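Section handout 9: paired folding examples.
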Amino acid sequence: MSHLEERFFNFVKKLGKFNKRSMFGGVGLFTEDAMFSLVTEGRLYVRGGGDVDDQFEKLGCERFKHVKKSTIATVNYFDISELFEKRPTLLLTMIKEAMDNSRAEREFKKSKENRRLRDLPNMQLTLERMIKKAGVPDVDSFFDVGAVSVFRKVNNTYGGDVDVKLLWKFAGAESGVHWTLLQEPTKKALLKQI
């Protein structure tokens, strides 16, 4: 750990507890499982969001660019390295706000209002699209209709040529488990219903 990282970690401790994890080739700082800061390649970054974006931009902070093989992704983390060295007291309230924003956004993403079909176990974007095309628009409808009926609808929509594994995936999603954990008696009972 560099001297800069150690100083920054001690600085952030003034705002409360946080955890560290490897992220983007550096170290991510998390509060209640919500990432709010990144330390990588000798630079310090803090998550934007809300009013913090404008403050960071007015202070000339650049956004973090994550370089992948052939693309560059610019994310909502601002380089605060110079601010940390020159104006740390100003930074303290901004980091606190970033921590609060991160926690609030994480809570919203976990909330029922924000759940998407692809967020359920066994699901992905292609299955979400299939289910929606079959007339089941959201998570609440999925649970109201039930795995067997959703499977029937998808099967009808796609011409009766759908793999039975989809039934297991839908049943697992409904139960909150990976489809491979469904027992044989459960699978047999599901098959009888279609």
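Moving on to protein 2 of 2.
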Amino acid sequence: MPHATAPPATGHRPRWWTELPLIAVVYALYSVGRLLVRGDVSTAVDHGLAILRLEQALYLNAEHPLNRLFTSTPALGIPADFAYASLHYLVTPAVLIWMFRRRSTAYRAARVWLMNSTLLGLVGFTLMPTCPPRLLDAGHGFVDTMAQYSAYGWWGAGASAPRGLSGMTNQYAAMPSLHVGWSLWCGILLWRHGRHPLIRAAGIAYPLITTIVVMGTANHYFLDAVAGAAVMGLGALLVKPVIRFADGVKARLAGVLPTGRKQAGTSTAAASIPATVSPDVSAGCKTSTGERIPGQRTTSADPPGPAVGGPAVGGSAARDAGDTAASDDAPAAAR
């Protein structure tokens, strides 16, 4: 998905005082929408069991062994719970800020990509509410590690939500996994735009670790992770159309004329000015009466009026003749 973060053809450096409110509004709408799309619990359970049966039929059921490992090994389970409850909300904005400050030419495309995918994830939560493995009946073999190790962290029965605030989150918004989707977004940007080998290595490791964590803590199925990656891919494909649409709306709201019309208008206005007219010299490129050209030489023998013995010449013809006689470029006989 390299085109998703390609620098835009035109545009200006983003400003934080416009970006911050925009991101805050979009995230607030996403959070509210996530709460409002809570589906029926029985439907969510049916979807979860259907995913589990499909994975078992495809021999993709990696959740059970990972969950048993995290449950039996606190040294793995506790850090995994902390990672699930925090990195999603720390690494993603950190990468967004890094792009804003250090890779500003690619920032807008990266931000649009993230927003596209997040809104597509909200559509998935609406169409397919899914019960995560940890909320299935214990007979299905999963243990809620977040509940098992809740004494070590701030979370309670509501997964990553702070203890006592489980009602402020939709626990059945599991398909697709935006934990995996957002981590993939971070990883691609770190790999593509990072210059230090460690940054690029983190771009590879972060989405892989996140995928293992969400399955080992029984918060997502493997197919949830696959769907999260698919959502990010679709969001990347929509980056250019969304940017073009946003630019068109902005241009119409601002009343900006197309570039071609602006250039045509400028050319017409320039063509209407005569080429022979100059604001600095007169039309005939002559000096005013009595004005001397710099470097002009005069002699005391030059009469102030018409030549002695010659016909009287008046007006501008006499002045022109005098100027010609006094000019450095005139033949010696004229002087």
